[in-house]
Amino acid sequence: MTTTPSTGGPSDSVLQDFADMSAALTGFQSSFLRPFLDPTNLSEVFYNFAVAQVGQTAMDNLLAAFRSRKSQTPPLTAQQIADSLLEVTTPTGKESNQAQLAQAVILMWYLGSWYTPAYQTANKQPGQVLQVISSQAYTKSLVWNVAQAHPMGFSAFTFGYWSQPPAGLATFGVNTGGGQ
Amino acid sequence: MSNGNGNGSDTPQYDVVIVGAGVSGNLIAKQLGLAGKKVLILEAGPAVPDSREQYMENFYLALAKTPESPYPSLAGRIGPGVGTLPNPSEIPTPRATVLSIGAPPDVSHLIQSETAGVSGTTPDNQPEVRQLQFSSTYDRIGGGTAWHWLGSVPRLVPHDLTMKTTYGVFYDWPIEYSEMQTLWGLAESEIGVAASVTQQVPLQAAIGMVYPPGYEYPMGPIPSSVVDQTVSNGVSGMSVPGEGSEGGKEYSVFVTNTPAGRNSEPYQDRRVCAGNTNCIPICPIQAKWDPTVTLGDALNTGNVTVSYQSVAVNIAVDGNNVTQVDYLKWSYDDKGNLQSTPASVTGKIYVSACHAIENAKLLLLSNDQKGIANKSDQVGRNLMDHVLYLAWALAPSQVWGYRGPLATGGIESLRDGEFRTNRAAFRMEIGNEGWNFACGDPYTTTLDFVTGSNGSQLNSGPTRLGGTALVNTLNDRLTRQFRFGLLLEQAPQADNRVTIDQNNTDGLKIPRPHVDYGFDKYTLEGFRVAAETCSAIFQQMGAQEFTQPTVNPYPKDKYPDGKTMGPGDFNYEKKMYHMYGAGHIMGTHRMGTDPCTSVVDATQKSHDVQNLWIVGSGSFPTVATANPTLTIMALAFKSAEAIKAALGA
Ligand SMILES: Cc1cc2nc3c(=O)[nH]c(=O)nc-3n(C[C@H](O)[C@H](O)[C@H](O)COP(=O)(O)OP(=O)(O)OC[C@H]3O[C@@H](n4cnc5c(N)ncnc54)[C@H](O)[C@@H]3O)c2cc1C
Ligand code: SF4
Fold this sequence. Notes:
The structure holds two protein chains of two kinds.
Chain A: H1 12-26, H2 30-33, H3 42-54, H4 56-70, H5 78-86, H6 97-111, E1 113-116, E2 128-132, H7 135-139, H8 143-146
Antiparallel strand pairs in A: 1-2
Helix pairs in contact in A: 1-5, 3-4, 4-5, 4-6
Chain B: E1 14-19, H1 23-34, E2 39-42, H2 53-61, E3 118-121, E4 127-130, H3 163-167, H4 177-191, H5 197-200, H6 202-207, H7 226-234, E5 239-241, E6 250-252, E7 255-257, H8 291-300, E8 304-307, E9 310-318, E10 321-332, E11 338-345, E12 347-352, H9 356-369, E13 386-394, E14 407-411, E15 426-431, H10 436-439, H11 443-451, H12 467-478, E16 481-489, E17 497-505, E18 511-516, H13 521-541, E19 544-545, E20 557-558, E21 564-565, E22 569-572, E23 575-578, E24 612-614, H14 629-647
Parallel strand pairs in B: 1-2, 1-12, 2-8, 12-24
Antiparallel strand pairs in B: 3-4, 5-6, 7-14, 9-10, 10-11, 13-16, 13-19, 14-15, 15-16, 17-18, 20-21, 22-23
Bound molecules: flavin-adenine dinucleotide and iron/sulfur cluster.
The site of flavin-adenine dinucleotide (FAD) has 42 residues of chain B, from helix 1, strand 9, helix 9 and helix 14.
């Protein structure tokens, strides 16, 4: 069960929206990012970390943008929602601060670290890493799933698995349905 | 152990005093302890921790997951909250780290060039590159550098020991191959090497690799990765032509499973490898042998004691005999201030086992910095590495790297041939970690496709992606990545040299190592052929090559085409290369039969000082292409026997 927020922390519904938005942005299943039994509680850790870095308003606005796209009719696919939040058709470097925050959310999930959005850095360049958010953020980071592998130094596989092709991507938590 | 009673007392406190609790020191201690000899090990660094959990946590939190990142001293842990790179002048046991290569002395323990290599010619008009960074690193903690060794343990081939006789270059080793075979067998049993002699048989015709009849490794091989299998299929039937006078000869190219110091079955109470893909910098489950295993055995004999945080500063010699070792015992007080107390200890026999660079430093520092064991003037000279050439590509189909031990196979068939008269040979290690070594992946490529950068060269569009499109694109690129790491045989050169730097000291006010380093034509020609061979293999496999001289963290010079050249970069015949260290530091106290041209004899005993052994890969007269630790251990067995004999076993 996900932990009840302490007073002043994000509500369950905010965290669920954050997980759903993260799912669209990362291409993973929301239930994989925020499972019912969630001892690591990364969605809350990441939400809080991002808010501390960019401020509550920026995060609220990003979530609001996500909710409005999600409730659109006809419904957008998860891919369309991600593309829209990330402004993928805007030339690189010209995307809004909000899209840069959406990038930072992907990078938290994929790499377990906080990459300061370009707009917050001195030279306005992306890719500047602040820190590994926690050891669990590293051992659960998703890029390794995308590679059908495991974080270096943290494997639940057994002897000799590397001599065979891995199981399909679908078994690594990615969203194969195309929708939510 | 006591303070300073060394000189006065007639009875030595120990049979043997060993400096350094790494691979060599621990193995010699174990052998002597088993024989009932009283041994003290002085170890500069902190104690081996009871559990490796803290080291693992350091690793998880390190931004740069370099070999040194899990280990104390904060190196590798950069960014807010985890400290900055330590200043070597402030800490008790600074060491060479990956993050400090090419950095100035307030970051780099080794004092050396901070620029790109300088191309020139020797007085006899041969090409050379000087002012290169020596790029191999080592650790100074209880257990030593092999906490983060990869665990590859191929043997040398017969011609590796007879370079002078066979190819007319360099030196012969003062040991016969047949004796080495016996010693390697002992080392393989100590480590618990996983390999199959049958799998190595094709190397007999190719490079003369032979095992004694009936020999078998302690346990079966580590399975070959999908990457190995793909390269193996891709080079099927391939050969490369001989060079120069060898015209017409063809060298066949094929993949061989690499003997490994990791368990394919439980051994010495340690688990089977689970393929954590993390042998460098730390195996989470100790499936990989490391020197703390042997240290545990040594301590269990009841005859071996370790004194941690004890940095040897002087091996005191009277005439032809060591009389005591002086050291500094350090600690941090409650306020975090570094403190040290001088002490000394006596033994009948002394062993310097600090690894090649620190061994040379200690010998040169001794006797009021006039140096000991150095009538040959070879101490510190002939510093060598298996200089590493890195080449990387995308395979035509998925190979699924980032899985399994970092390397399980290699191309060994080009390690010997008549070309060694003219240029360095190499062994080709196949990496199982995608482009992690090559460009910091999977981080770099992920950043590229999320933010629209192109550090990986894979996002030249550039595009920015999210959702399923990101998953699919990254999956395609990451699962096709692979690399070769070529370990080149470096020539021994007198001017590749460790000296002591009076102007730069560590936190205990001990002068630090100064390094002069470069490549002669022999090594440079090896580089040229290494690069050509990799490209030819990629082409044969239908793989797309992405090898680049790297983007350097400390750029200093501009290359004519606008590329930045920095530490580790150099030009040869109008082509730019980047060299890495293999972590194999060799040659600073070479062995030989002639006291005028070598420092130690075949047992690693000093020619000049009666009761001093100087051990480790510093003793290697030539380095060939096999990773050194198996041979370090083989020689340590030989030294231990000689020491026992000298003590009157
Ligand atoms: C990244 C990496 C990967 C590697 N992979 C492989 C591999 O796959 N196969 C292979 O064969 N080899 C490999 N090596 C090389 C291997 O680690 C070394 O050959 C080996 O550790 C050398 O053993 P040693 O005992 O001579 O020195 P070390 O292991 O360095 O031990 C020396 C000890 O002496 C101590 N010491 C130093 N100075 C003093 C002093 N003044 N007083 C007291 N104590 C002192 C140090 O603290 C240290 O504990 C690798 C190295 C690196 C860096
Ligand atoms: S692959 Fe993993 S488990 Fe195996 S030896 Fe290396 S780090 Fe240890």
